[in-house]
# Entry
Amino acid sequence: MGEQVFVKIGVGLNLDNSHPTECLNKIFRENNLNDWKCEMFIAKFLNHFDKYYQTLKSEVMNEFMNDFQQNWLHTNQKVRLESLNQQEAEIIGINEFGYLKVKTNDNTEHILQPDGNRFDFMQNLIVRR
# Structure
């Protein structure tokens, strides 16, 4: 509105659903953190979230993007691109606009823009609608 920008952010924390991705309870069990408390985790999460929120407010986007891409689950994940005849590609990151970057076997990089595509976790497939 005017010169102000309003953003609504929704966050989901996966505690128990281990398929198709990872769940926190499984990670905690595998690392012998059986005494973790959900309330403590949420408090720590919100503190980290606030740090990133402050970074975004200060327009230091490179710092945020570097941290994001070092910690997200999809780097190096193999997918098939329906738009390129099921050609296999490797996810290499996202660009400055938030579009998914992939590299095919011939080392060609592609930017996947939101044109109705979706990522099917169950089949590691980029699906065009």
